[in-house]
Amino acid sequence: MKIVVLPGDGIGPETMAVTVDVLHAASRRFGLNLELDHDISGHESLRRHGATVTPALLEKVKAADGLMLGPMSTYDFKDESKGEINPSKFFRKELDLYANIRPARTYAGVAHKVGKFDLVVVRENTEGFYADRNIASGGSEMLITPDVVVSLRRITRHCCERIARAAFELAMTRKKHVTIVHKANVLKIGDGMFVDTCQAVARDYPKVQLDDVIVDAMLAHVVRAPQRFDVIVTTNMFGDILSELTAELSGSLGLGGSLNAGLDHAMGQAAHGSAPDIAGQDVANPFSLILSAGQLLGWHGQRKRLPAFNAAAQAIEAAVAAAIEAGEATRDVGGRLGTAATGRGFVPRLLAA
Ligand code: ATP
Questions:
Q1: Which protein residue has the closest C-alpha to ligand 1 atom 19?
Q2: Does the pTM of the predicted model rise above 0.85?
Q3: Is the pLDDT of residue 133 over 90?
């Protein structure tokens, strides 16, 4: 099974180096026969190939079984005509990775101010307020006059329907509770369609409890009592913002694993950005990317019914929890190690799982 590995920018190279060691260890321990194909994207690709991502790289990723994408300096990439393409958008759009699955749970050993919780944000990933991905050509943000900007949001019944189904399928494997997060009191037509479509899909899952919360109130609810949530389904921008909050509430943004999944392709990618403020200092938490790699293995396990991949995914999550509890983690989660040493301690833990 071939996985393309793109380290990315900022803390990407440090955290991906550790994650690569973990994938090799998981392959050995669980007999996964993983083949990792290392390539470049982001600033390094811009320097060497004149573009942050290339058509050849896309073809390689399409032919592979999965992609691990490191964090990207998306804020630096402003002009696509100069090769400055947002790699994250590029793969999500080109591979139609419509479901962004972002789990957040608390861990023993990390002080958490809001009590124990375990939830998943299921974020629509291909339209919404994301101006660089919701139309076929060009962008949906326009400078009308030097002082007037119009940003368009696209919502389609098709995309609402498939993200709702992803959320309900996930809920069936968990506590069977889905919460729709929306702003249908203001975005009456677009979010109205999102809510209606989720409610229609819910009829196919009578065992799943369904409720809905308006996004601004949701930020208060998730801080006050995150325990009341299981699977949260929402549109693109709300999901991006909400999942950063839930990751931080779980202990650190550095615990925010994430999977971008479509019908035929999947990409593991940490929920956070490139964190330039801590890049190159050996302090970045690699667990967000390691957990994302675990999610990618789990996606293969479920989709292709490969028990060894499911076992590897579960072992990675359990080993992360055990490492954090033992303090063999980075300082943001109360540990005493740097990025590289966290990886060196983690590999034997996984091999012994
Ligand atoms: P970008 O512009 O690429 O989004 P950013 O710094 O604006 O980068 P994030 O990368 O999401 O946004 O980081 C937000 C904060 O969380 C920063 O203070 C960063 O140092 C911290 N952070 C992000 N990822 C990690 C990590 N893996 N380990 C520790 N701290 C992290």
A1: 275
A2: yes
A3: no
